[in-house]
Specification:
The protein is an all-alpha fold. It contains 11 helices and no strands.
Protein backbone atom coordinates (compact mmCIF):
# COMPACT_ATOMS: atom_id res chain seq x y z
CA UNK A 1 0.00 0.00 0.00
CA UNK A 2 1.46 3.34 -1.03
CA UNK A 3 1.79 5.59 1.97
CA UNK A 4 0.89 9.27 1.79
CA UNK A 5 3.47 11.32 3.69
CA UNK A 6 2.01 12.46 7.01
CA UNK A 7 1.43 16.15 7.58
CA UNK A 8 2.83 18.17 10.46
CA UNK A 9 0.21 18.61 13.21
CA UNK A 10 -0.96 22.17 13.90
CA UNK A 11 0.65 23.95 16.86
CA UNK A 12 -2.49 23.82 19.01
CA UNK A 13 -5.57 21.65 19.21
CA UNK A 14 -9.00 23.25 19.31
CA UNK A 15 -10.76 22.54 22.60
CA UNK A 16 -14.23 22.37 21.09
CA UNK A 17 -15.59 19.31 19.30
CA UNK A 18 -17.97 20.19 16.49
CA UNK A 19 -21.20 18.33 15.85
CA UNK A 20 -19.73 16.95 12.62
CA UNK A 21 -16.61 15.69 14.42
CA UNK A 22 -18.67 14.08 17.16
CA UNK A 23 -20.81 12.34 14.55
CA UNK A 24 -17.73 11.07 12.66
CA UNK A 25 -16.09 9.73 15.82
CA UNK A 26 -19.20 8.15 17.29
CA UNK A 27 -20.03 6.46 13.99
CA UNK A 28 -16.88 4.43 14.70
CA UNK A 29 -16.84 4.20 18.49
CA UNK A 30 -20.41 4.53 19.63
CA UNK A 31 -21.42 7.19 22.15
CA UNK A 32 -18.52 8.76 24.09
CA UNK A 33 -18.31 11.42 26.80
CA UNK A 34 -16.73 14.73 25.83
CA UNK A 35 -13.29 14.06 27.43
CA UNK A 36 -12.95 10.87 25.37
CA UNK A 37 -14.02 12.67 22.20
CA UNK A 38 -11.33 15.26 22.80
CA UNK A 39 -8.74 12.59 23.56
CA UNK A 40 -9.22 10.64 20.32
CA UNK A 41 -9.06 13.90 18.37
CA UNK A 42 -5.66 14.79 19.81
CA UNK A 43 -3.13 12.30 18.48
CA UNK A 44 -0.33 14.17 20.28
CA UNK A 45 -1.76 14.41 23.77
CA UNK A 46 -1.18 12.39 26.92
CA UNK A 47 -4.82 11.27 27.12
CA UNK A 48 -4.57 9.88 23.59
CA UNK A 49 -1.40 7.99 24.58
CA UNK A 50 -3.10 6.62 27.67
CA UNK A 51 -6.07 5.37 25.64
CA UNK A 52 -3.77 3.82 23.04
CA UNK A 53 -1.89 2.00 25.81
CA UNK A 54 -5.11 0.58 27.28
CA UNK A 55 -6.68 -0.15 23.89
CA UNK A 56 -3.73 -2.31 22.88
CA UNK A 57 -4.53 -4.66 25.79
CA UNK A 58 -8.29 -4.63 25.16
CA UNK A 59 -7.72 -5.51 21.52
CA UNK A 60 -5.32 -8.29 22.50
CA UNK A 61 -8.01 -9.87 24.70
CA UNK A 62 -10.64 -9.72 21.96
CA UNK A 63 -8.34 -11.14 19.28
CA UNK A 64 -7.02 -13.88 21.57
CA UNK A 65 -10.54 -15.00 22.48
CA UNK A 66 -11.53 -14.93 18.82
CA UNK A 67 -8.53 -17.06 17.84
CA UNK A 68 -9.29 -19.59 20.58
CA UNK A 69 -13.05 -19.81 20.12
CA UNK A 70 -13.16 -19.75 16.32
CA UNK A 71 -9.99 -21.44 15.00
CA UNK A 72 -11.71 -22.10 11.65
CA UNK A 73 -12.74 -18.45 11.21
CA UNK A 74 -13.98 -18.06 7.61
CA UNK A 75 -13.01 -14.36 7.57
CA UNK A 76 -9.34 -14.84 8.45
CA UNK A 77 -8.12 -15.54 4.91
CA UNK A 78 -6.49 -12.14 4.52
CA UNK A 79 -4.31 -12.88 7.54
CA UNK A 80 -3.38 -16.34 6.30
CA UNK A 81 -5.32 -17.77 9.21
CA UNK A 82 -3.04 -16.03 11.70
CA UNK A 83 -5.30 -13.68 13.64
CA UNK A 84 -2.31 -11.96 15.26
CA UNK A 85 -1.42 -10.52 11.86
CA UNK A 86 -4.64 -8.52 11.94
CA UNK A 87 -3.34 -6.34 14.78
CA UNK A 88 0.11 -5.36 13.57
CA UNK A 89 0.61 -1.62 13.09
CA UNK A 90 0.68 -2.09 9.32
CA UNK A 91 -2.56 -4.11 9.28
CA UNK A 92 -4.40 -1.74 11.61
CA UNK A 93 -3.25 1.28 9.62
CA UNK A 94 -4.25 -0.31 6.31
CA UNK A 95 -7.73 -1.04 7.64
CA UNK A 96 -7.93 2.47 9.13
CA UNK A 97 -7.22 3.94 5.71
CA UNK A 98 -9.87 1.73 4.12
CA UNK A 99 -12.57 3.08 6.43
CA UNK A 100 -11.14 6.63 6.46
CA UNK A 101 -10.53 6.50 10.18
CA UNK A 102 -9.32 9.78 11.60
CA UNK A 103 -11.19 12.02 9.17
CA UNK A 104 -11.73 14.25 12.20
CA UNK A 105 -8.01 14.79 12.82
CA UNK A 106 -6.52 18.15 11.90
CA UNK A 107 -3.72 16.58 9.84
CA UNK A 108 -2.96 13.44 7.83
CA UNK A 109 -1.72 10.85 10.31
CA UNK A 110 1.26 8.52 9.79
CA UNK A 111 0.86 4.73 9.63
CA UNK A 112 1.93 4.35 13.27
CA UNK A 113 -0.45 7.07 14.41
CA UNK A 114 -3.38 5.50 12.57
CA UNK A 115 -2.68 2.19 14.34
CA UNK A 116 -2.52 4.03 17.66
CA UNK A 117 -5.79 5.79 16.83
CA UNK A 118 -7.48 2.43 16.26
CA UNK A 119 -6.39 1.26 19.72
CA UNK A 120 -7.38 4.57 21.34
CA UNK A 121 -10.88 4.30 19.87
CA UNK A 122 -11.22 0.73 21.16
CA UNK A 123 -10.20 1.80 24.67
CA UNK A 124 -12.55 4.78 24.64
CA UNK A 125 -15.42 2.49 23.61
CA UNK A 126 -14.52 -0.07 26.30
CA UNK A 127 -14.48 2.56 29.03
CA UNK A 128 -17.76 4.10 27.83
CA UNK A 129 -19.77 0.98 27.08
CA UNK A 130 -17.93 -2.11 28.27
CA UNK A 131 -17.21 -5.21 26.23
CA UNK A 132 -20.24 -4.95 23.96
CA UNK A 133 -19.25 -1.50 22.72
CA UNK A 134 -15.58 -2.42 22.39
CA UNK A 135 -16.38 -5.59 20.43
CA UNK A 136 -18.63 -3.60 18.10
CA UNK A 137 -15.69 -1.26 17.39
CA UNK A 138 -13.31 -4.15 16.72
CA UNK A 139 -15.91 -5.70 14.40
CA UNK A 140 -16.15 -2.41 12.50
CA UNK A 141 -12.50 -1.38 12.50
CA UNK A 142 -10.43 -4.55 12.56
CA UNK A 143 -12.10 -7.88 11.74
CA UNK A 144 -15.46 -9.72 11.73
CA UNK A 145 -15.81 -11.62 15.00
CA UNK A 146 -19.08 -13.54 14.79
CA UNK A 147 -21.09 -13.88 18.00
CA UNK A 148 -18.29 -12.78 20.31
CA UNK A 149 -20.59 -10.65 22.43
CA UNK A 150 -22.28 -13.77 23.82
CA UNK A 151 -18.95 -15.21 24.95
CA UNK A 152 -17.89 -12.00 26.66
CA UNK A 153 -21.28 -11.53 28.30
CA UNK A 154 -21.28 -15.11 29.64
CA UNK A 155 -24.61 -15.67 27.91
CA UNK A 156 -23.71 -18.77 25.91
CA UNK A 157 -26.44 -21.41 25.72
CA UNK A 158 -24.71 -23.69 28.20
CA UNK A 159 -21.07 -23.72 29.29
CA UNK A 160 -18.37 -23.42 26.69
CA UNK A 161 -16.56 -26.72 26.14
CA UNK A 162 -12.93 -25.71 26.64
CA UNK A 163 -11.81 -28.98 25.06
CA UNK A 164 -12.96 -27.65 21.69
CA UNK A 165 -11.01 -24.39 21.99
CA UNK A 166 -8.35 -23.99 19.28
CA UNK A 167 -8.44 -27.54 18.07
CA UNK A 168 -4.68 -27.71 17.56
CA UNK A 169 -3.37 -27.29 21.20
CA UNK A 170 -6.31 -26.17 23.33
CA UNK A 171 -4.12 -25.72 26.42
CA UNK A 172 -1.92 -23.23 24.66
CA UNK A 173 -4.95 -21.36 23.32
CA UNK A 174 -6.46 -21.08 26.79
CA UNK A 175 -3.16 -19.90 28.26
CA UNK A 176 -2.95 -17.24 25.56
CA UNK A 177 -6.43 -16.01 26.51
CA UNK A 178 -5.57 -15.99 30.22
CA UNK A 179 -2.30 -14.15 29.58
CA UNK A 180 -4.18 -11.48 27.62
CA UNK A 181 -6.58 -10.95 30.54
CA UNK A 182 -3.65 -10.66 32.95
CA UNK A 183 -2.06 -8.05 30.71
CA UNK A 184 -5.32 -6.11 30.55
CA UNK A 185 -5.73 -6.33 34.34
CA UNK A 186 -2.28 -4.80 34.77
CA UNK A 187 -2.91 -2.13 32.14
CA UNK A 188 -6.35 -1.21 33.48
CA UNK A 189 -5.09 -0.99 37.05
CA UNK A 190 -2.24 1.30 36.04
CA UNK A 191 -4.55 3.43 33.88
CA UNK A 192 -7.06 3.92 36.69
CA UNK A 193 -4.62 4.32 39.58
CA UNK A 194 -2.59 7.21 38.15
CA UNK A 195 -4.47 9.59 35.82
CA UNK A 196 -1.32 11.67 35.34
CA UNK A 197 0.89 8.80 34.11
CA UNK A 198 2.03 8.87 30.50
CA UNK A 199 2.42 5.77 28.34
CA UNK A 200 5.97 5.05 29.48
CA UNK A 201 5.03 5.18 33.16
CA UNK A 202 1.91 3.09 32.57
CA UNK A 203 4.00 0.42 30.85
CA UNK A 204 6.41 0.34 33.80
CA UNK A 205 3.52 0.07 36.27
CA UNK A 206 2.02 -2.84 34.36
CA UNK A 207 5.36 -4.63 34.12
CA UNK A 208 5.82 -4.32 37.89
CA UNK A 209 2.72 -6.43 38.61
CA UNK A 210 2.37 -8.65 35.53
CA UNK A 211 4.98 -11.21 36.59
CA UNK A 212 4.80 -14.99 36.78
CA UNK A 213 6.19 -14.93 40.34
CA UNK A 214 3.38 -12.69 41.51
CA UNK A 215 0.73 -14.86 39.87
CA UNK A 216 2.28 -17.99 41.39
CA UNK A 217 2.23 -16.43 44.86
CA UNK A 218 -1.47 -15.65 44.44
CA UNK A 219 -2.10 -19.25 43.38
CA UNK A 220 -0.35 -20.51 46.49
CA UNK A 221 -2.32 -18.24 48.82
CA UNK A 222 -5.68 -18.88 47.16
CA UNK A 223 -5.09 -22.58 46.43
CA UNK A 224 -6.59 -21.93 43.03
CA UNK A 225 -4.39 -24.45 41.20
CA UNK A 226 -1.63 -26.93 41.95
CA UNK A 227 1.49 -24.98 42.90
CA UNK A 228 4.20 -27.54 42.21
CA UNK A 229 6.81 -26.62 39.61
CA UNK A 230 8.37 -23.35 38.46
CA UNK A 231 6.54 -20.04 38.81
CA UNK A 232 6.00 -19.95 35.05
CA UNK A 233 4.26 -23.34 35.16
CA UNK A 234 1.99 -22.26 38.01
CA UNK A 235 1.22 -19.03 36.15
CA UNK A 236 0.26 -21.11 33.09
CA UNK A 237 -2.29 -22.99 35.21
CA UNK A 238 -3.76 -19.73 36.48
CA UNK A 239 -4.05 -18.48 32.90
CA UNK A 240 -5.99 -21.62 32.01
CA UNK A 241 -8.32 -21.03 34.98
CA UNK A 242 -8.94 -17.45 33.82
CA UNK A 243 -9.87 -18.77 30.37
CA UNK A 244 -12.16 -21.41 31.89
CA UNK A 245 -13.93 -18.64 33.82
CA UNK A 246 -14.39 -16.67 30.61
CA UNK A 247 -16.00 -19.62 28.83
CA UNK A 248 -18.35 -20.34 31.74
CA UNK A 249 -19.12 -16.91 33.24
CA UNK A 250 -17.97 -14.22 30.83
CA UNK A 251 -15.23 -11.63 30.48
CA UNK A 252 -15.98 -9.57 33.58
CA UNK A 253 -15.50 -12.61 35.81
CA UNK A 254 -12.30 -13.54 33.97
CA UNK A 255 -10.93 -10.01 34.34
CA UNK A 256 -11.81 -9.96 38.04
CA UNK A 257 -9.82 -13.16 38.61
CA UNK A 258 -6.91 -11.77 36.58
CA UNK A 259 -6.95 -8.59 38.64
CA UNK A 260 -6.92 -10.61 41.87
CA UNK A 261 -3.97 -12.65 40.60
CA UNK A 262 -1.94 -9.48 40.12
CA UNK A 263 -3.05 -7.40 43.08
CA UNK A 264 -4.11 -9.59 46.01
Amino acid sequence: MAQTPPETPPPRLRVDVSAAERAAIEEVTGALPLPALRAVRDGRGREFQRLEFLGDSVLDVVVSVHAASDPQCPHCARSGGNVARLVTDAALAARAEEIHLGSWLEWRASTERLADLTEACIAAAWIAGGWAQAIAVVQRMVHPLGDMAAIFAGSFDGNFDANTVATVNPGRASRRVGAAFLELAGASSAFNSDPTADEAKLSAMRAAVHRAERVAQFAQRSRLVATDGEASQVSDRVEEQIAQLLWSQGADSALTLADRALHE
